[in-house]
Amino acid sequence: MLYRVIDASELPSLVSAFLETYEVIAPVKSGMSHAYSTVESFEEIALDYTTTITPLKKLFLPVRETLLTFDTETNDVTEYSEPVAPRVVFGAHACDINALNSLDLVFRDGPYPDPYYTARRNATLIVGISCMPTDTCFCHLWGSDEARFGYDLFLQDIGGKYLVSISSVEAANILEAACSPREATDEERAEFRHVTRRRQEAFNKEIPDIQEVAMLMDAFHSDPFWEELGGRCLSCTACASACPTCYCFDIRDVRTPDGKHGSRERVWDCCMNPQFAVVAGGHNFRPDGRNRVRHRMYHKLNGFLATHDRMLCVGCGRCVRACKANINPIEVLKFFERKGADDAE
Ligand code: SF4
Ligand code: SF4
């Protein structure tokens, strides 16, 4: 990994350089919050944002997309692929980069890469930026507060300057041409350590730091807590839509009114949808909120870890804000904390 320092005043030049060749997608102000959106200039970007409403996944796994089209009279099938223009996501936080790294494991790096996702991922440069946690952030508990890979440039704010981690030649060439990157001085390296420590100290200390979560998910699998937590669920699916790592989808064949043509569509779906686990014959494997909420938390905090060696939750806190019934991983951590206190009595 190569590290260089640039002045904050050089960021507009960097964005302008990207704009010459790439579509630039960045956090912008959207009502009371922020959202990723295509921008035309540096001035539109809000780099001091907290968390965007919707996650990065929508850029790689759209809410709805056509996979193929077909003709029922000729039996012809046409593979469908939308051209993806080169683009840059400018200003992604570490948790969102880590979420993308998890999606890569599922859609790009497995035995059957998803060509639609992979085409979008390959066409996209990622420029990350450091942030400070809000009250609902707990990325540090899973080690997602730092992006070790999955980006092309990462900008660490060290006060009027950025320490830039460079991990791709393509982005390095643009940085070199647009800015005057220089080697970090000892003072700048020391400042990097200070800001990292300040960020660690800024996390909400009321969120319990439970390290053995995956094991506890197994140990308390049958606890009445899941009935209480799941019983509140409204099945609105807002948690999964907001989550940067929920990736389940449904496949539907949609035909024209005359039935002669059609398309195969992929649309977001999720395990919080009451119909999600219905199989032929009408049996529902997860018929109630208890089973659905427990399943979702289990996948986030245990199941994915077993198969991919990392938590599927990155602690971004989006579901904490999205769920009107206060169902989220923090509530699970608090439950484990209470259990620990009960056992100690
Ligand atoms: S489960 Fe919640 S906190 Fe974890 S990654 Fe998803 S939205 Fe973020
Ligand atoms: S857990 Fe919350 S956000 Fe998710 S479906 Fe249930 S009520 Fe909606």
TrEMBL record:
The keyword Oxidoreductase does not apply. Pfam families: Fer4_22 (PF17179). GO terms for molecular function: iron-sulfur cluster binding; metal ion binding. Residues 222-254, 304-333 form the 4Fe-4S ferredoxin-type domain. It comes from the Bacteria. InterPro entries: 4Fe4S_Fe-S-bd (IPR017896), 4Fe4S_Fe_S_CS (IPR017900). The keyword Cytoplasm does not apply. Keywords: Iron, Iron-sulfur, Metal-binding. PANTHER family: ANAEROBIC SULFITE REDUCTASE SUBUNIT A (PTHR40447). This is 4Fe-4S ferredoxin.
